[in-house]
Amino acid sequence: MPQWLRAAAIAAGMCLLSAAPALADGVAADSKNAKMTCSPSTGGRIALSANGMWHGSSGGDQPVVYPNTLTNLGNAWTGGGVFQVPAGCKGPFYLSVSFEKDSTRICNGPFGTTDDVRMYFTVNGVKIGNSAWSGQNTGERDSASFDEVVLLSDGDQVKTMVYSDGGLHRCLGEFNVTIFNLR
Known about the structure:
- The chain is built from 1 helix and 10 strands; from the N terminus they run αββββββββββ.
- With 183 residues, the protein is mainly beta.
- The protein has one domain (43-181): Sandwich (Jelly Rolls), CATH 2.60.120.40.
- A 5-stranded antiparallel sheet has the order 3-1-10-5-8. Strands 2, 4, 6, 7 and 9 form a 5-stranded antiparallel sheet that branches.
- A hairpin with a 2-residue loop joins strand 6 (117-123) and strand 7.
- Mean pLDDT is 77; it is low at 1-37.
């Protein structure tokens, strides 16, 4: 594990699997009070991968709902569009979002816009970091992606939101989210 990641994990109060004593099932325990950091059934790992096709919405910033769940290790995906950090799993998490903007299809309304479309993450309702951004006049289709590592606390709720300049109708041909803890 890189030194910078180890330092971030320790600063966040996370027990590292390689540095903490193990219980009988191999899950790390807090050396101070022998408390498990995450679910024994997942070895302390949390991972989500979800996707969808043909999301259409208009107006202000809207949450993105993912109809297909590919991976939900640790059951942190509460369904639709909310990822919640389980108790004892705080620390650094990798977040990734990608989408394809399509202006040739009708997605729950009119054709999609060729104007700016962005997808971004919120934690407990507050925008974090930058965004995946498909600029205006990029043609009929364009794709964008964004990745970041953030420190999350127990119970934090992560959502992805979509936005378009002026609230114009946006059509996401394909859209994906991946979240996992760095343990």
